[in-house]
Amino acid sequence: MRVSPLFLALVAATAAGCVLATFDNVYAMTAGVVLIVLGGWATSLCLHEFGHAVTAFRGGDRSVQAKGYLTLDPRHYTDPVLSIVLPLLFVAIGGIPLPGGAVWINHSALRTRRIESAVSLAGPLTNLVLGVALTAVVASVPMAPGLGAGLSYLAFLQVIAFVLNILPIPGLDGYGAIEPWLSGQARQFGEKARPWAPLVLFALILATPVGAMFFRVSYLLFDVVGGNLELTIDGMSTFRFWM
C-alpha cells in the first residue's frame, strides 16, 4: 500500500502549524493554530474513511483496494467539495464538524453482520482514538500555550465528530452499525430517510435545544478523556480570530 503524497502534505501542513504555534509572535502563533486545526481536521477525515476501508478490506471486501481507499488519498473519498472542502468550511466558520467523505463498501462481500457493524463503527472510533491521543499528548508533554490550545481544540473537534457520527440516524455511521440487524421494513425506511435525516439533525442542533444537549454530551465525553477545556476555548478563540 502506497500512502498518498496529498495525505502526507496534509500531515506536513499540520506539523508546520505545530511549529508556528510555539512562536511568541502572535501572528505566527495564530497562523499555526489555524494550520493545526484545518490541516489536522483534513487529516482526520482521511483517517476516518481509511478506518472504514481497512476494516472492510479485512472483512472480505477487496474492492476498496482497487478504488484507492487504502491510500489515504482524500480525492478518492467521493466528491472533494462535499467530502473535504465543505466540512473544512464548516469548521472554519465555527460550526459543527460535518461527517465528511464516504467510502462505498460492497456489503455483499462482507462475511458477517458483525463485520458490517464494525465497518461502520471504525470511522467514528478513529475520531475518538485521535481525540484521546491528542488530549494525552497535551496533558503529558510540556508545550507552548499556543500549541496546547491548537491541539486541544483539534482534540475537541474529534470528540464532537465521534458523538455526531455515532448517533443512530440514517446517513450517519451509528445507523450503519445497527442497520444489518434491522428488519427489512425498517431498512427500507432508513434508506428513504438517508438523504434528509442528517440535514434535519443538523438543523435541530443549530436551531433548537437539541444543540445544547449535543454539546453537553460532547463536553462531558471530552472531560472524561482528559481534555483541557480552558486550552480548548483558547484554541477556539485563536482559530476564529476573524469573528
Key phrases:
single chain; about 240 residues; mainly alpha; 11 helices; about 70% helix; globular; metal-binding; protease; cell membrane; Site-2 protease family protein
* Count of discrete domains: 1
Largest sheet: none
Order of helices and strands: HHHHHHHHHHH
Q: Any low-confidence stretches, pLDDT <50, length ≥5? A: none
Using DSSP, what is the number of strands? 0
Mean pLDDT across the residues is 91
Structural class: mainly alpha
Taken as a percent bin, the fraction of beta residues is under 5%
- Coarse shape: globular
Percent helix? 55-70%
Distance between the termini: 42 Å
* Whole-angstrom Rg: 18 Å
Per DSSP, the total helix count is: 11
Membrane topology: Multi-pass membrane protein
Protein name: Site-2 protease family protein
InterPro entries: Metallopeptidase_M50B, Rip2-like
Keywords: Cell membrane, Hydrolase, Membrane, Metal-binding, Metalloprotease, Protease, Signal, Transmembrane, Transmembrane helix, Zinc
